[in-house]
Design a protein that fits this description.
about 350 residues, alpha/beta, Quinone Oxidoreductase, Chain A, domain 1, Rossmann fold, 2 domains, seven-stranded mixed β-sheet, six-stranded parallel β-sheet, 10 helices, globular, oxidoreductase, NAD, ADH_Zn_CS
């Protein structure tokens, strides 16, 4: 793929050119000058960036682009290289994380009530501004997370969206202490949420079409792992739908015990078929969506992950194979989370 015209030495990356099926190669390799950090921003040399299903939705057009040639990626781990005017949280050399939520107005009724994830003026990394499928980027320091400098960056990257969103979905599922949790789909987000639930004493049942994912679920401690359309071995107190498949909504609801809750974790979902009230919602079963996250979610999850020893299963790709990583994600060939590694950082060991 041709590089966009830019000065020699400018950092390289990938941008969404013409959204469409992954087979049409919607990503374009580019070189682009990274702007100097503005007020309240930090410049970041990227060490690793996780590949999220939201990136796939953007590339394929399920999410309409907000700007042309946007660099995807919102699970960013890197080192601060420069600070903009007024930026004081971080210093050059600090390791930081950039996540999906990039900015909010801070004054609307949602922000003031602690629901900044619902802010009508919210903006997002890799959708409204260039993200982490690149060697360098700029992040607003108010929405960046401090990260341990001695950890493997590839291990940290999936925590910044897959982990945070899975954590919020787990809380939205209203899982009672010691409860029975069903997870529909078992990719990057679900395999982290499962570890949190298990650490908190839950019984976890995994429902997914991927045989490799079922093996991983059992290795991590799930009590059962079956096909996505199978019934779990016992009624569920709570369930989370990670797969972007609307057909699974009535399946998940039918698996709930009385008073159970199904939370839908994705930003995109295919159409939900008609629901039969008596079979799906009666007996006070709840259906909830999950929208982005708050910074408090991020802080709480990262603290929980460190305390509970949550560990991501990762498949590493060089940055120049970002298109292959997305294709593998689309075809369910990724075990755990896909992570891009630029050439510029020193790579750490880990899996």
């Amino acid at each position: 793929m041709a590089f966009e015209a830019a000065r020699a030495g400018d950092p390289s990356g990938w941008a969404v050119s013409e959204p469409g099926p992954i087979a049409t190669e919607p990503l374009r390799r580019i070189r682009r000058e990274v702007p100097a950090p503005g007020p309240g921003e930090v410049g970041v040399r990227i060490e690793a960036c996780g590949v999220c299903r939201t990136d796939l939705h953007l590339a394929e057009g399920d999410l309409p682009p907000h700007r042309p040639l946007t660099v995807p990626g919102h699970e960013i781990v890197g080192r601060v290289t420069a600070t903009g005017p007024g930026a004081s949280r971080f210093a050059p050399g600090d390791r930081v994380g950039g996540a999906w939520l990039r900015g909010t107005c801070g004054v609307c009724r949602y922000c003031r009530a602690g629901h900044e994830n619902l802010c009508p003026s919210s903006v997002y990394t890799g959708w409204d501004a260039d993200g982490g499928f690149a060697e360098a980027t700029v992040l607003p320091e108010a929405f960046a997370y401090p990260l341990p400098g001695d950890a493997d960056p590839a291990q940290l990257a999936p925590l910044l969206c897959a982990g945070i969103i899975g954590f919020r979905a787990l809380r939205r599922s209203a899982l009672p202490p010691g409860g029975r949790l069903g997870l529909y789909g078992f990719g990057a987000s679900a395999h982290l949420a499962a570890q949190v639930a298990l650490a908190e004493g839950a019984t976890v049942h995994v429902l997914t079409r991927s045989a490799r994912a079922r093996e991983l679920a059992l290795e991590l401690g799930a009590s059962s792992a079956r096909d996505a359309y199978d019934a779990p071995p016992q009624p569920l107190d709570s369930a989370i739908l990670f797969a972007p498949v609307g057909d699974l909504v009535p399946v998940g609801l039918a698996a709930l015990d009385r008073g159970g809750t199904l939370a839908i974790a994705g930003i995109h979902l295919s159409d939900i078929p008609a629901l039969n009230y008596e079979r799906s919602l009666f007996q006070e079963r709840d259906l909830r969506s999950v929208t982005s996250n708050t910074r408090a979610d991020g802080r709480d999850f990262l603290a929980t992950a460190q305390r509970a020893g949550i560990r991501a299963t990762v498949t590493r790709y060089p940055l120049d194979q970002a298109d292959r990583a997305l294709a593998d994600l689309a075809a369910d060939r990724v075990n755990g989370a896909a992570v891009l590694i630029p050439d510029n950082p020193s790579d750490a060991d880990g899996s």
